[in-house]
UniProtKB/TrEMBL annotation:
Gene Ontology terms, MF aspect: DNA-binding transcription factor activity; transcription cis-regulatory region binding
Highest classification ranks of the organism: Bacteria, Bacillati, Bacillota, Bacilli, Bacillales
Matching InterPro entries: HTH_LacI (IPR000843), LacI/GalR-like_sensor (IPR046335), Lambda_DNA-bd_dom_sf (IPR010982), Peripla_BP_I (IPR028082)
Protein known as: LacI family DNA-binding transcriptional regulator
PROSITE patterns: HTH_LACI_1, HTH_LACI_2
Domain (HTH lacI-type): residue spans on this chain: 2-56
Keywords: DNA-binding, Repressor, Transcription, Transcription regulation
A Pfam family hit: Peripla_BP_3
Organism: Paenibacillus agri
Length: 325
């Protein structure tokens, strides 16, 4: 594998000159830069990004820690974050924590050692002090870790109110909410709070079922819905806190002979692209996933530039009615 010394020797310049070309430091003629880059191409030389970051104040890399990259919502979120980061001159280092405390701790340590310019957190399993000790620009998604750490989320309460209000307006009189366990301390818990508030305001009977603390285990969803229909066979409206949960609710209705929306009306949350593959099309509360991703990247860059940033960034949601309500 060619080294920077090989490039310098082939181009007839010093190693320092090659380094200055790579880091764009000092005055360099276009002719000289072209000569060095042509030599790099001829030798198939690839700079070591980590080594370069150690010699300058920026690595142009942003770390992203998410719970499950296989989850469609986080897959879309990651894609948009990477796109916005790249358009701003940054690359993304992706970490899949699986809500494992040890993995999350090790990933944070790795990102700090790699001299990333900032970290976007979609996972939160450690104590607050662990995040305060990162000493890097930090942004969280759908998690409020502490007042000094900015977060980005959709308007979860408004979304829950829209979803529950739609079910009530359609005539549902026995409602169920299905979501992740409140012990996860996610801002998305506000979806359930709104569900409860609207149902009580409308005088509608309601219940709620939660997955265990690890709220992204898809295999739990079928058992959860089986339990719901066993305990409450006359449920006629379901608000699922994600489109994936809504898809499982639709499947459970179809498997048990319940017609949707005639017998049971279903609405999800997220607005993921995969939802459009469902038949019938699932009604949903659409999060502005691309805008959330863009804002998270912007907040990292603004902190790097020394700008003061607000701690709270709540973006609006939209009701998109499909065929399940």
């Amino acid at each position: 594998m060619p080294t920077i010394k090989d490039v310098a020797l082939k181009a007839g310049v010093s190693v320092t000159t090659v380094s200055r070309v790579l880091n764009n430091r000092g005055y360099l003629s276009e002719e000289l830069k072209k000569k060095v880059y042509d030599t790099m191409e001829e030798l198939n030389y690839r700079p070591n990004e980590l080594a370069r970051s150690l010699s300058r104040s920026k690595s142009n890399i942003i770390g992203l820690i998410i719970p499950f990259v296989s989850h469609p919502f986080f897959g879309e979120l990651t894609s948009h974050i990477e796109g916005h980061a790249y358009r701003n001159g940054y690359k993304l280092l992706l970490c899949n924590s699986q809500l494992d405390k040890l993995k999350e701790f090790e990933y944070i340590d790795m990102l700090r050692s790699s001299r990333v310019d900032g970290i976007i957190m979609g996972s939160h399993t450690l104590e607050v002090e662990a995040y305060r000790q990162i000493h890097l620009p930090l942004v969280t998604f759908d998690r409020q870790i502490s007042p000094e750490i900015p977060y980005v989320c959709s308007d979860n309460y408004r979304g829950g109110a829209l979803a529950t209000g739609l079910l009530a307006d359609k005539g549902c009189r026995k409602l169920a909410h299905i979501g992740v366990h409140p012990h996860l301390n996610l801002l998305s818990h506000q979806r359930y709070v709104a569900f409860r508030d609207v149902a009580e305001q409308r005088g509608i009977w309601h219940t709620s079922l939660h997955t265990d603390v690890n709220g992204f285990k898809l295999e739990e969803y079928e058992a959860l819905l089986e339990q719901l229909f066993l305990e409450h066979p006359d449920i006629d409206g379901i608000f699922a806190s994600s489109d994936i949960l809504a898809a499982y609710a639709l499947k459970a209705c179809q498997d048990s002979g319940r017609r949707v929306p005639e017998d049971v009306r279903i609405i999800g949350y997220d607005g993921i692209a995969q939802r459009k593959l469902q038949n019938p099309l699932i009604s949903t509360i659409r999060q502005p996933i691309e805008e959330i991703s863009k804002r998270a990247v912007e907040l990292i860059i603004e902190q790097m530039q020394g700008k003061a940033v607000a701690s709270e960034h709540i973006l609006p949601v939209e009701l998109e009615e499909g065929a399940t309500t």
